[in-house]
Amino acid sequence: MKFTCLRKGGGYHFPPCHILDICGFRILLDCPLDLSALTIFSPIPSASKASSVDKPNPKCSNRSGPLDLEEPLVRKRQKVERPLDADDLIYAEPWYKTVRNLHLWNTSFIDVVLISSPMGMLGLPFLSRIKGFSAKIYVTEAAARLGQLMMEDLVSMHMEIRQLFGPEESCIPQWMKWEELKLLPSSLRDVALGKDGGEMGSWMPLYSAADVKDCMQKAQRLKYAEETCYNSTLIIKAFSSGLEIGACNWTINGPKGGIAFISSSIFGSAHAMNFDYIALQGNDTVIYSDFSSLDATEDIENDHSNFVPTTHDFSSLRNEENDEQELAKSVLHVDDNLEENQKLAFLSSHVIDSVKAGGSVLIPVGRLGIVLQLLEQISTSLDVSDLKVPIYIISSVGEELLAFTNIIPEWLCKQRQEKLFSGQPLFGHVELINEGKLHVFPAIHSPKLLMNWQEPCIVFSPHWSLRLGPAVHFLQRWCGDQNSLLILENELDVELALLPFKPMAMKVLQCSFLSGIRLQKVQPLLNILQPKVLLFPKDLKLINSSKSTAFSIFQYCPDETLCIPSLKDKSELEIATDLAFHFDWRNLKQGNISMTRLKGELFREHGKQRLIPGYVQESSEIRQLVHWGSPDLDRLMTVLSGRGIKGTLRKASRGSESENVASAVLVNDPSQALIEVKETSTVITATSENLASIIFESIGSVLDGI
Amino acid sequence: MAIDSLVLGAGQEVGKSCVIVTINGKRIMFDCGMHMGHLDHRRYPDFSLIGPNFNQTLTCIIITHFHLDHIGALPYFTEVCGYSGPIYMTYPTKALAPLMLEDYRKVMVERRGEEEQFTSEHIVECMKKVIPVDLKQTVQVDKDLQIRAYYAGHVLGAAMFYAKVGDAAMVYTGDYNMTPDRHLGAAQIDRLSLDLVITESTYATTIRDSKYAREREFLRAVHTCVAGGGKVLIPSFALGRAQELCILLEDYWERMNLKVPIYFSAGLTRQANMYYKMLISWTSQKIKETYSTHNAFDFKNVHKFERSMIDAPGPCVLFATPGMISGGFSLEVFKHWAPSEKNLVTMPGYCVAGTIGHKLMSGKPTKIDLDKDTRIDVRCQIHQLTFSPHTDAKGIMDLVKFLSPKHVILVHGEKPRMATLKGRIQSELGIQCYDPANNETVSVPSTHYATAVASDAFVQSCSNPNFKFSTSGSEHEQGSSSSNRKSIPRLQVSDDRVAEGILVMEKNKKAKVVHQDELLVMLEEKKHQVKFAYCCPAHIGNLQENQETESTGLPLSSTNNDMLQLLSAKLTNELSEVNIQDFGDHLQVESFRVSICSKEDCPYRLSDNGGEEHYEPMFFCCSWAMEDEKLAWKVISMCQK
Ligand SMILES: [Zn+2]
Ligand SMILES: [Zn+2]
């Protein structure tokens, strides 16, 4: 088994990406996009600051945009390092940053792609559209649907920008030319080229809607814990990871053992089905790929005022840690939800404060689960405060996304499933829409939106990078209003993200949500999984329990290939018992060993090798075909006479070492025959088939053979 | 090893489906149904046959779908009998079953104030024990038992269940439909290797034609009735058939622009539609695809029905529970509407014996005695729905053929029809088939595999292609049991990758399978080769005669080489499937080697064959190994002739 980490990823929106070679197959684990890199581009120009709601067609008013391009570029060249300003951003149609070095791997050699979350497939159309791509893509049905919607949304948001810039003239945009890159401020250059300057090759112009469609057609959708078999060899199953609806961990079972691949996982989710770690038990190898604790700051930060960060203390639990699985489980079950709920309540209270003060709230949060919960939380808070403030969802896929969340109870957490069983909608948004409290529109210029529009209001709208989508327009509209509020995820470099909207009077709350396994839960989890081999990120520190670990740990870091010796060198074979009925066992002279010839049809089925009777013709008798040892001639004579064969023995002269010296048995009854015996060979000569075969049997009985 | 199936219900009948399957030490109860036609102890399966302690003897219960004949006894079994182990069913079944059970419980209590077998609380408590499963989800019930649900059509959430313990595996189908209907897809299952399939056989001998025509027939009957000012009563359970017919009617109403009201008798069906909306991914592909724009279970033309409207004038269509008119509201409406010939009652294709529905279907009664004091005049039209959510006989045969299990057990059908189907399965598919009565046990053998470690060389050798060319119909064709087939001679290429190896058992070590060539190295032994050799005399005259008849045009005076050529030609002619290699001085076929022997004292020449030789014989010196024994003697006999 070989394992190469291509990218350790960054947070919820940019999951890690790896390549795994196993049983002669190459598996790509996830294919994400680094959308946070979009921040080096300029958003839709701020000339439309006067708001798109008032001017429903902002792109027309900005047709002159590209013409202004020359001037700022000239200015940039004369500049030395100084604080960034909005003009430093790249003013061009954005490109998209894929996983570095993925393009160095030959796409046609990838056999399988496993997608662990909707976010993990955003880069997939780049791969699947390449000629020669023939890998089997496995993805859970829920992740496939959500991923497709996210990609379609991305394509549609990008279209808005593309219309602004017009068709591209050359295949390499101006900003990617070296002389331009040289002039970029260092913080932007780091994003564009990577810290070591090696990431230029990972930028791509966005795929088309047709690419997305084509990609989705190639994907095989899996049900929860559905068993699928690749090439009769690998059994692949997806189990919920709890991170998002449809997000999953994988088990891969082949003839040489099982692997559990753990992506970012959440033990107690308030919307998606929880991390099903029990299902991962019994696999020899665990690949731990949850990097979330690397960038978990775990508090709510605020740019403009000091909020007390929520604290949590697991130290007491940490001390009690031991190997007992029960205790381990109790540690895992410490409710993450409680803390997450506190964060939501906290955000919600600020939302209420803002609307009370007459400001509007923009929530360009990209996490579906957070959006769904915030919707419920905020609407409840509004009811409690008796406020009639409309909530809008403006997204090209908003309606479908909401409808979808209400028809997949199979991928939701227990509490949500209970709603199904009691006949209630799975999420609060169904009621909110019916009651007219929530309005869903595909775009900012939807005529119905313009009729319906009311401020202050609360808007959920993409994109979290603040460079694409309706969010840009709303931010431009409200950034100068000190009563308005912007809620951001912490995966964004706020400084850079807000650059084009400066000066900001608007309040900004940046919040980190739990996006994986807390470090202190890793050890208890491993105690339950009990792997023999653990692949663990070098950057993460395992909190070692006092007892020595029972497994060997291989630490990995990006762009290094680990070779993991396989635990089983021989493969298992299952033999059907109805085949075994025909076995003709032989005990060897030296004792302790018995053996039989076996003949059947080898079946590779569901990762197992099975020998079944099949259509093999039953041979009437089983003959020995291999012999060893040297025959005892006197015993041979006895055996022969026992079978009614008479003859005389002519022994070779003693002491002659030569192989060519032969002893012989001259048979004269029932008919003439000759048995010539040498050290390592015997030759039987007879005129009839029958006699020859009796002699053969007799020799077989004085030799070892099979 | 064996799989034992104890049929507690639905043995040679329809109703109270319940089979206890014991498979490698695990005991599964498939379905826990009740019989609608009985009011006494026969309404439930005889649970006492399971043994004294259900919780110890049963590993789990699996419920296939929400129909009462499959789940009706479950609350009684868990809450009254005390079973507390795991229960598995699909998400829709878990969501919808309580509605069915509650509906039934009400009917039971309302009718004659019968003592209730279980309460509402019982239903709630019972459902709490249920673990919902998704389709194809592989559920590890315990270390050894694995179960998996497959789509069965029939009603929303209906599933066939696969169960596997060790190497033994089986499928219990529950009720299924092999053709899609208005709102559900057709049953779908993987090709599995199975020891046993237990299948329903409601329509064991019926073959149905196109569904479309039968739907049209129904719509025409309904339309004719309402056009004549009549009332249509569709007795149906709240779930399943009601939704299917409703989608059908809703669509027809839109197309024909009809304004006649369609009613649901209780809030139940309306409530059910709420569930259907969330469970839309379990419906047919067509309905699924449109969920975000229009949910097919938002019925526009459907209204709520009040009891006071029973005798209101004017035409209408009413869905009333329960189906089969076994009591409750549908019976009440039936009493009012049956006497008028303008009205129409539609009945499903199958009604359990003992219900009014059953009486209506068997013959055309003009009067029905409800009890001692009540007699109903029946003058209304009766329309029998000829489309059914059950598979027909062809569907059963198709499924059994597709799965090709080693054994089949038929349940959920009528005895004489089942016997016919059983005969077909045995004669047409060659699969052992059983149709046990209630409380009988069928025992079938199960698959078992022994595990061994296989060497790489063995595995490699198995995947080497092993092409064989044969002319079928020649004498070399295997004398298999099916040799009565007429053979058309033509060249066949087969690639039988026969796995041949040696299984070695050493004390205290895991069994090992190795390739023949590895064996001696493993044993650290020296090979001793046992060969055959025979220097066989041949009569040149014979060969030459042969040659002339074949007119190959070889010169008459033959050298040794020519003789070999001659033999080679003859061999090629006679042995079609061998590959003869000519090395000039000798020929080789597999391990068999033949050359012209000129040594007078060849040790392999035996002197005792027939002394009267007219010609100086030629000698073919042959040697071979045991593998090619048959071939060798065949060639020798040819040489001698
Ligand atoms: Zn049924
Ligand atoms: Zn049934």
TrEMBL record, chain A:
Keywords: Cytoplasm, Nucleus. The keyword Cell membrane does not apply. SUPFAM superfamilies: Metallo-hydrolase/oxidoreductase. Pfam families: Beta-Casp. It comes from the Eukaryota. Residues 46-66 are annotated as: Disordered. It is found in: Cytoplasm; Nucleus. This is Putative KH-domain/beta-lactamase-domain protein, archaea.
UniProtKB/TrEMBL annotation, chain B:
It is found in: Nucleus. Residues 242-360 form the Beta-Casp domain. Gene3D superfamilies: 3.40.50.10890, Ribonuclease Z/Hydroxyacylglutathione hydrolase-like. It holds the Pfam family RMMBL. Residues 469-491 are annotated as: Disordered. Signal peptide: none annotated. GO terms for molecular function: hydrolase activity; RNA endonuclease activity. Keywords: Hydrolase, Nucleus. GO terms for biological process: snRNA processing. Its main location: nucleus. GO terms for cellular component: nucleus. The keyword ATP-binding does not apply. Residues 15-230 form the Metallo-beta-lactamase domain. The keyword Nucleus applies. Coiled coil: none annotated. Belongs to the metallo-beta-lactamase superfamily. RNA-metabolizing metallo-beta-lactamase-like family. INTS11 subfamily. PANTHER family: CLEAVAGE AND POLYADENYLATION SPECIFICITY FACTOR FAMILY MEMBER, INTEGRATOR COMPLEX SUBUNIT 11. This is Putative KH-domain/beta-lactamase-domain protein, archaea. It comes from Rosa chinensis.
